Fold these 2 entries.
Entry 1:
Amino acid sequence: MTRLSQRSSRSPAQDGGAAARPGGPRGLGAVVARWNALPMLARHGAAALAAFLGIVLLTSATDSLADLRIASVGFSMLAVAGLGLLVGMSGQISLGHGAFMFIGAYTMALLVIHQPAFPLWFNLLLSIAVSCVAGVLVGAATARLHGPYLAGATLALAVGLPALALRFPEFLGGSNGLSFTTRGAPPGLAELVPATRWQAWGVWLAVLLALVVLANIGNGRLGRRMRAIRDDETAAALAGLRVGRIKVLAFVISAGCGGLAGALQAYLLGTATPSTFGVALSLTLLAVLVLGGLGSLWGALWGALALVYIEVWGDELAHALALDTDVANNLPIVLYGVLLIAIVLIWPGGIHGALRHLGSRLRPRS
Amino acid sequence: MNTRSPVLAAALAATLLLSSCAGAGEVDDAADADLDVAPGVTDDSVLIGTHQPLTGPAAPGYSQISAGAGAVFDYINDNGGIHGREIVYHVEDDAYDPTNTVEVTQDLVHREEIFAMVGGLGTPTHSKVVDFLNREGVPDLFVSSGALMWNQPDEYPLTYGYQVDYTREAKIQGEYIKENFPDADVGYLHQADDVGSDSQAGLDQYLKDQVVTVEAYESGQDDIGAQVEALDDAGAELVVCSCVPSYVAMMILEAQRIDFDPQFVVSSIGGDTITLSGLLEEFTKDTDAEGVPADALLDDLITTGYLPQVEQEEDPWIELFTEIHGEYIEDVVFSNTTIYGMAQAAKFAQVLEAAGQDLTRQTLIDALGENEFSGPGLVPFSTADDDHAGFIGAYISRFQTGEEPEILQEVRVTDNGDGPIEEFELDRPGPDEVAPFAGLD
């Protein structure tokens, strides 16, 4: 990894020459070739490890509020990426993604409260399992639906599911939700690493592992099949693909990601409250997915950054301009809306599409 | 970065994975935080923070609380502050969303480095940060909620309640109804969370035999027609409403619409008649009921309270608050909710004064334990080491348009269990007898 980054810092002209030599041991081209020759899982794993290292380095320089926000970017990115797989790759729409986050968060909360001895990784796996089961049920029920009908059915999920907490106040805490405390760093490290930072690392590690799985699915056979179904369902069926099964599978994977994201949120914030998982969350996830760029994990990252930081920046801007409270309170929403409209109008491919466009312009044509 | 970096990252990842083998919910009892510190305190200022719903569903009505508190702090600062220190009051908006509360509280504690949290508002919201504040050693004073959980000195040694808790208040209501309406069929209408369950626990101690129906609404619901009709069908002659203002207003309008005319008894959280009358005007706009004077709808409403009310113009504290309101926040409506914030701020100022010149978190907590802080409330206030209740009783009054509220029953105090309810004669000093207000002007 380090060698790669050292070499890639050389000027493109120099490397271009080296790459021209077939089998040349030096230069960017050779490294890229060797890199591409690695199995996909190894490549994605290495990238995830590098990203994790980046997160650790980044958080070692930030305060605990920034750590909290960085971790929020993590779980939001996973939720958006899961939705991206469903919408961008399999061509289904879901207005109810927040409901799976709700399931994950409450599974986590209930496990921590009632089974405090269960380890975190086990809780996370169980949360994924529970939301996958929910995904199977929802996916199977909605696999025949298209477009607005599917949107309507999933919207009902987003509206209805959080009401469960109100229906069973004894068990799910009613509208006040559940609150609990989770462990920070182990005793030996607790002096060095504040709890929030430790939790941010835990969140990102889980997120990156899940993203490796997502990236492999996206670039593998299943991803190709999903795209085939998205582009032409009839043709895909004629080619021998089991359309219904693959669509449900896409739903389940996306539900699992949503559930894990919700569980990580609950772990990070120590709370699960129905009002957090309302319709607004589901719609926001979809909006930032479009904002970031459909069909790429990078898009999910930009979307998650926008989700977390636009509000922060809006608040800071309002603070700096000393605006009236009524204006200040609405500034982040306005900012967000304007950005969304502008991006979609100018670059329909979202932020990632814009960056790619920019990148291809900068690259010398040869 | 050296070549060992990937190894390091992998090792760290492995440590994380391994350490996640210990129970996620097994939290060690952290050693008590060091309280002999004074973050946010300088020779000429002290920084305090709060989380309030300035936007979102709970903002109408509740946003006046921090405005009122801010005005009192401004007044104190303009008169020299406390022990020469200016009070810097940092209000964060959490929009009544617990997720935001967690974030803004972290911001207040770690980035702003507040000395203390004062009057954090809401049960769903504040319950998510009460652990954090106690762990970090941040004094958590006068939570703006009537939940029972703030008064747990063993578990939350730094958290102190403020308003009378729902169970105490309901016991006093229950006893009053039993004594004065012994034959009435009683219906409850309450919010389906701890407000409802804690209130019912108190009411049932006295009214078990008189209750004909219990109806609940969810916070966030936008119609309670079905509940009001159920109360009517059950033949309730008296309805106890343990509700926030918007649902009290909805209930009154709905009852009027179906010609259901019971005696309404409303607890203090929904009993601010000025806020209610504003809501009624807003709700009746563009409907058949438009133009019906809102106050007429509220006539004879029985409410409980522990603070003086806006209409009690003779009250020395109301006089002071009226003056402060006129000077600092004239554009904010002067309601009992505003008074709530002002009284809370005044209370905190008293505590800060008592903590003395050498201010640390420990001296603040000591001051709370050693003193009784009488006034502006009409009810005794407990900040004893083993009882962090805040106000421990209530009086009962009846609203009448254009007049001072009629006091139906003087202050009585009780506990939140099944203890007796007792009359109490409070020695209540005016602002000119209480530091720091006595020294001002």
Note: Residues 1-24 of chain A have pLDDT under 50 and may be disordered.
Entry 2:
Amino acid sequence: MRTLLAAAAVATATLSGAAGAADFQPAIIFDLGGKFDKSFNEAAYNGAERFKNESGIGYLEFEVTNESQRDQALRRMVQRGASIIVAVGFGYATPLDAIAQEAPETKFAIIDSVVDRPNVQSIVFKEHEGSFLVGMAAALASKTGKVGFVGGMDIPLIRNFAYGYEQGVRHVKPDATVIANYTGTTPAAWTDTGRASELALGQFDQGVDVVYAAAGLAGTGALQAAADKGKLSIGVDSNQNHLHPGSVLTSMLKRVDNAVYNAFKTAQDGTWQPGVLSLGLAEDGVGYSVDEHNKEILTPDMIAKLEEARAQIIAGTLKVEPYQQ
Amino acid sequence: MRGKLPVWVNVGLLPLLNLSLAFLVSGLIVVLLGENPLEAVRLLVYGAFGYGEALGYTLYYATNFIFTGLAVAIAFHAGLFNIGGEGQAMLGGLGVGLVGIFLGHWPWPISIPLAILAAMAFGGMWGLIPGWLQAVRGSHTVITTIMLNFVAGALMTYLMVNVLIKPGQASPESVTFAESVWLPQLGPLLGLGRSPFNAATIVALLACVAVWLFVWKTRLGYELRVVGKSEPAAVYGGISPRRQIIIAMTLSGALAGMMALNEILGAQHRLILGFTAGYGFVGIAVALMGRNHPVGIVLAALLFGALYQGGSELAFDMPAINRDMVVVIQGLVILFCGALEHMLRGPLEALFARRTEAVGQAQAQTA
């Protein structure tokens, strides 16, 4: 009897899932880096996958390869009747601003930029707050007093990572040296793992022993270089601790996955709201990762100091400045 | 030329055979991915030509490739290999962008020609530098042009992040230009629906005519080709290779720079980073396939435009085929039409040599 009931429950669940799928169609458009960049886009992908696995509703997806496709992909998703379209990356801001007006019935969400339209949810992260904490971790773990930063392109978004990181380092060691380099000047910078590796090696030669990579897929090259040379590294966006256990000190989590998941979820259950969502430490939008891969190197002592700073930042007693033009 | 093949085989049959081979191998890969290759071809062709909007996008991409293809071709006629189309197009974009940002509110009969001139001047300047280095210092253009791509990238990133960025936001892009300086959209005019297809395509076709006239109908163009064929012969004929090299590279850069008209003035209406998206490099393949002739370049550009547009539609409709697979198909086309061109040329030549011989003998017997 019990199995029968269970079977009936499963059957109803499948049916309602199918019905929901017909009415509700989420869509996601990734940025130029591609959905398997082990970093920013992959976090978004993981959020979409989590929604799919929990709700049984599949999603439409597209990875752009050039600037014109941003506009094209947004329009195509509207034509396909998507209920909510999540655009991953600030590059979508200008085309989305136009399309949101043309399709007022469609819900949109954009990550890393603000589009002020009544049917758009703008999700921005306080990267400087999360970077501040990993900057503290870097300074605490560094023996030489020199820490490195490997960014993707030298754009305002990445400068915000660097700026918060430097403040965190100085919070622990005011006289520490921070060496910052960028992997390139063209969008290829985000995938140039070789260059990131070279830059990290160059920084190690200058005495750096902890490097923070905020360069999308390219950053994995810096993590690899640190692992090869027995130095420490800090991952970004997704939890990258597992890539080199014992070498990745921690990862600056930017919970793009939660943002995507919540956008899909709230759009489905009707609680979705347009407007700006600014996600920092207080909202768990950014943070640092602790798991079985870094528990040997990120000591309880360090974690205690980071937690103290986190509480102070949330309470407002410790100010972290964002990068400003 | 090579003498052994009739013209229709050289410019028609051979590229077609190479193309078929490329698609055959692509089809095999599609089968390996568990999808139906015929369905994939149908989606690709329909996505590129099947309806107005698709055709508009195809023509829009093709326009980029016509400009960069012509740029490579004109350098090639002077015996130079310009792989700096990317950087020259970026600089062209800078020229167009400066006009759009600061003079965009001027009446269009003044601002648009100014933007075209700026695209040519900025791109041409970025071609002139490696041209001068090659002519005077002997630094090879292959090295200098590719290095200047990165210099152009660095310059653009610096300017877009620090100087030309739209205030109050973090994305490295300029303000949107005044509407008067936007190139007219051709899609709605020709019933092709909404797409970035714009008047830059007409400029591209005019550029084709101009390049044809210049290379084959002017004295300067003749001298350019002589230098390309043999420098000692040029010197013997009283032609200065130095001057020709500088002229060819400047024109090449100017053509590549004009690509920005299509992207910046025609489609984006604002200056952004990364608008070149590799079109400068694809121009090499386009010129190669098009045998460095404007007509061939237009056809090859159409093919690549169709692959870009049809490919993205394919990625939309067949989730198993992602954007990397589309790059594989494009890569196979380049491989078979460029690198493996001689694979079929030899056998074809042998075949036609035998046929001509047989015909010759038959004629001899009847006589």
Note: The domain at 11-23+33-344 of chain B is CATH 1.10.3470 (ABC transporter involved in vitamin B12 uptake, BtuC).
